[in-house]
Inverse folding.
């Protein structure tokens, strides 16, 4: 452990509580308030805005009333002509509107309607995750008495249809709608006669299963909606974490012994749990992944220092795990849990404590600078640019075999790219040399031809012996023939 204390790493539990002093856990997304106090603050601000808008509307109405009480100016022929023109235009638009309504209305009849085939209405297909969640929900309802199961199924089905129809609401209004449903279901379970006689475990399981079924069904509608900036923030924090991969546990005062094989195995599990958050649909399942990740982090700390872990040791380790895993859609998942999880789960208990620390870790990563790591600005800039590597970063590599292979392939591709660039450079140099050599040869030939022009003369062809004899005009005797002499 380093003797220097870093700023912003060690947080007491009191710093994680709601700043309103209610005793529940606060949240960075709720500006330090718990969900209950945050809703009260939002309602007060909304009520103040409504009163301000009403006051402004009254002022405008009073001013218009005062203007209408004044005598109108004299209107001439142009004003009357304009009124007739406006009335005529209004009648024309009314006639056109009626024609369009008649054309597109449900009562419009086609002349050959009887001959047209009647197609059955298309049924909406659910995803495999929704079907699995519905199956689990039905299995849970079988353990309840019939009136309670029917009422719970009816309430959930009606609420899902209501949210799917409420396309005009923004994400804050949809979040408030879901939170109001949780409160209404909780009150209904406690007071309605259909749930009388249910055990405490069944009552707690009802809220968990209700949250799981409705949020699984509404996941595509409510997770990272296109009318929010969640996607842009996801990309920003993902790029930010990629640039901070050089950070070591020692820089964060994190008690993590990466040289221990058992610790490396637990780090891999914690990373997997953190990445798995994005594959879950219900907030309760996402929180369960965070809880498993945190439990593995405490095991890592225990093995690294061979002593029980404290809250001060936990937060630096969470920050390092977030930097090492770089989970996808991190901001969207945190916002999704904050907006649509059961507030009682985030305000207290093990899941609420772990989730609050993860939110603090993300906030720290977004605002991390040289002073936070006790580095000089020159060192920080050199590490961020990749010009230098901090000492002790030999273990700061991905542990998962798949990630190792991916980074090894990326390194090989980078090396091949460098070799290809060098090969292209050498080819261009060779091409330049060949062009220069060709030009020099051409110049030399031109110089030789210029100084010593080439004169072409006819070649003398030597004649053969037979040709000379046949071409002469001499009358030579016939060649002598061999004769046989008798003895």
């Amino acid at each position: 452990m380093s003797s220097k204390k870093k700023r912003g790493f060690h947080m007491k539990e009191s710093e994680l509580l709601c700043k309103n002093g209610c005793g529940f856990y606060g949240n960075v997304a709720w500006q330090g308030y718990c969900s209950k106090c945050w809703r009260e603050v939002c309602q007060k601000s909304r009520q103040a805005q409504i009163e301000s808008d009403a006051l402004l509307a009254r002022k405008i109405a009073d001013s218009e009333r005062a203007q209408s009480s004044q005598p109108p100016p004299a209107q001439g022929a142009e004003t009357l002509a304009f009124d007739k023109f406006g009335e005529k235009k209004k009648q024309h638009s009314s006639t056109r509107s009626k024609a369009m309504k008649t054309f597109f209305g449900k009562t419009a009849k086609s002349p050959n309607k009887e001959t047209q085939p009647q197609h059955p209405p298309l049924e909406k297909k659910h995803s495999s995750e929704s079907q699995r969640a519905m199956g689990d929900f039905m299995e849970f309802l079988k353990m309840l008495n019939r009136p309670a199961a029917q009422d719970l199924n009816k309430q959930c089905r009606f609420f899902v249809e209501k949210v799917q129809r409420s396309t005009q609401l923004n994400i804050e209004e949809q979040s408030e709608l879901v939170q109001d449903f949780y409160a209404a279901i909780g009150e209904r379970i406690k007071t309605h006669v259909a749930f009388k006689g249910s055990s405490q475990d069944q009552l707690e399981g009802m809220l968990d299963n209700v949250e799981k079924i409705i949020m699984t069904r509404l996941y595509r509608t409510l997770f990272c909606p296109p009318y929010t900036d969640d996607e842009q923030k996801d990309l920003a924090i993902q790029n930010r974490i990629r640039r901070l991969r050089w950070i070591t546990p020692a820089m964060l005062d994190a008690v993590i012994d990466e040289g221990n094989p058992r610790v490396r195995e637990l780090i891999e599990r914690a990373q997997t749990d953190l990445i798995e958050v994005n594959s879950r649909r219900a907030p309760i399942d996402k929180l369960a992944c965070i809880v498993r990740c945190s439990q593995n982090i405490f095991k890592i700390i225990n093995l690294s220092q061979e002593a029980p872990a404290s809250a001060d040791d936990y937060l630096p380790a969470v920050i390092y795990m977030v930097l090492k895993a770089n989970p996808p859609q991190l901001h969207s998942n945190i916002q999704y849990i904050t907006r649509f999880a059961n507030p009682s789960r985030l305000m207290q208990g093990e899941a609420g404590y772990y989730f609050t620390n993860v939110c603090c870790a993300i906030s720290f990563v977004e605002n991390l600078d040289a002073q936070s790591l006790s580095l000089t600005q020159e060192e920080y800039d050199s590490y961020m640019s990749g010009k230098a590597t901090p000492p002790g970063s030999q273990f700061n590599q991905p542990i998962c075999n798949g990630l190792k292979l991916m980074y090894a392939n990326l390194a090989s591709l980078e090396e091949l790219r460098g070799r290809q660039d060098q090969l292209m450079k050498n080819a261009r140099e060779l091409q330049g040399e060949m062009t220069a050599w060709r030009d020099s040869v051409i110049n030399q030939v031109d110089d030789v031809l210029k100084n010593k022009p080439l004169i072409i003369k006819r070649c003398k062809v030597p004649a053969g012996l037979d040709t000379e004899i046949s071409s002469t005009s001499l009358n030579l005797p016939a060649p002598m023939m061999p004769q046989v002499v008798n003895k």
